[in-house]
Design goal:
The chain is mainly beta. Helices cover 15% and strands 50% of the residues. The strands form two sheets. Strands 2-8-7-4-5 form a five-stranded mixed β-sheet, with no helix packed on it. A three-stranded antiparallel β-sheet has the order 1-3-6, with no helix packed on it. A hairpin with a 6-residue loop joins strand 4 (63-73) and strand 5 (80-91). The relative contact order is 0.24. The model is unreliable at 11-21 (pLDDT under 50).
Length: 137
């Protein structure tokens, strides 16, 4: 009887460990800020500010994380992705993605923007997207 109890306890422990080690590949959060660590989250930037983004990634294997800036509403500009303002990172398991977008020489144009992040697994399958809106004034 004692042996059966230990067997059941051992199987239960293995089940708990298997569930704990299974990590869903996903973007847990996306924060924007004015410093690389995004210690203070913000959605308001000045024309000369660098835009930093940190995407908290949950994964049990290698992933690719792509961030791109999109124009939502800027006078004289076409809505959509901004050419050349896309960055892709190859990350090992369980690492967050940090992106830096420096302003152009003349500064960011005033208006509304979106930063979009796309997560793909090592096989190229899309596993999630998140976006964050911000304003430049």
């Amino acid at each position: 009887m004692k042996k059966a109890k230990w067997t059941v306890a051992g199987l239960g422990l293995l089940l708990i460990l298997a569930v704990a080690c299974t990590t869903e590949t996903a973007i847990k959060s996306l924060k924007l800020g004015k410093d690389k660590a995004v210690t203070t989250e913000t959605a308001a930037f000045a024309t000369g500010d660098t835009v930093y983004a940190v995407a908290a990634i949950s994964s049990s294997g290698k992933v690719k994380v792509t961030a791109r800036l999109l124009i939502d509403e800027v006078e004289g500009q076409t809505k959509g992705p901004i050419p050349g303002l896309e960055s892709t990172l190859d990350l090992p398991s369980g690492q967050d993605a940090t992106f830096t977008f420096s302003p152009p020489t003349a500064g960011w144009p005033k208006g509304k923007f979106t930063l979009e992040v796309v997560l793909t697994d090592d096989a190229g399958a899309q596993k999630g997207t998140k976006s964050a809106n911000f304003t430049v004034s």
